[in-house]
Automatic annotation (TrEMBL):
This is SDR family oxidoreductase. Keywords: Oxidoreductase. It comes from Plastoroseomonas arctica. GO terms for molecular function: oxidoreductase activity. The keyword Oxidoreductase applies. InterPro entries: NAD(P)-bd_dom_sf, SDR_fam. Belongs to the short-chain dehydrogenases/reductases (SDR) family. It holds the Pfam family adh_short_C2. The keyword Oxidoreductase applies.
């Protein structure tokens, strides 16, 4: 699928690897200026160099998305550097899985509050550009999970918040949607690590996907770009599942 985001200004939170990087690459390939953030400087530098190779502005900043003031600074600095915001992609996750204080704190601080905070700063810019927000949830948000209860709960919260954001911002011409990926595998990611370690959960998940494989970050990114594009100009408040039929099992 070919998109044209020439001259658009895109912010991707958690854009140095996996789905976030694929999303940033997709926008850069389509002509956008892109700003990303992440915690680890090495992957962040590599991602910035790759994005700059598409010939458009690419800026990167180290940011702990669990740190509220840091999130606010990142969005405002990125908006100033790019001259505004047309698209905000809230992708980062704290991967807080377990039903513990630590698990809940990780998910609430990054998956939820980073989305709330980044949106808060970006919204005035998005109102001016009639732009859009794309939140990254998960199919875990649609069903109970005994393995990752805190993760499932915060992803369900994002699905709900996406609808609420869309309702609040429609009057301003700002659209808000989400993608809900299934199990996605990429180099260095958690599913690759499970596969290499021979963990039974990998085989169980693989068996649950009708297409017989895990998804790729690019397959999620294409849907995110669609939701941010004029092709989806009458779509708002929706969460699109991208899972190769994993939810059908």
């Amino acid at each position: 699928m070919t998109f044209d985001f020439s001259g658009k200004r895109v912010l991707v939170a958690g854009g140095s690897r996996g789905i976030g990087l694929a999303v940033a690459q997709g926008f850069a390939r389509a002509g956008a200026d892109v700003a990303i953030c992440a915690r680890s400087q090495g992957p962040l530098d590599a991602a910035q160099a790759e994005l700059a190779g598409f010939g458009h502005k690419a800026i990167a900043a180290s940011c702990d998305l669990g740190d509220g003031p840091a999130v606010l600074r990142w969005v405002e600095d990125a908006a100033q550097a790019l001259g505004g915001v047309d698209v905000l992609v809230n992708n980062a996750s704290g991967f807080g899985a377990t039903d513990t204080e630590e698990g809940w704190a990780a998910g609430l601080s990054v998956d939820v509050m980073a989305t709330v905070r980044a949106s808060r700063v970006a919204i005035p810019h998005l109102r001016a550009s009639k732009g859009s927000i794309v939140n990254v949830s998960s199919i875990s948000g649609f069903r109970p999970s005994t393995r990752t209860p805190a993760y499932a709960a915060v992803k369900a919260l994002l699905i709900s918040y996406t609808s609420s954001q869309a309702a609040m911002l429609a009057k301003d011409g700002v659209r808000v949607n989400a993608v809900a990926p299934g199990s996605i595998e990429f180099p260095g990611g958690s599913w690759e690590k499970r596969r290499l370690a021979g963990e039974p959960v990998y085989a169980n998940i693989l068996a649950s996907i009708p297409f017989g494989r895990l998804g790729t970050p690019e397959e999620v990114a294409d849907v995110a770009l669609f939701l941010a594009s004029p092709l989806a100009r009458w779509v708002t408040g929706q969460t699109i599942i991208v899972d190769g039929g994993q939810m059908l099992g």
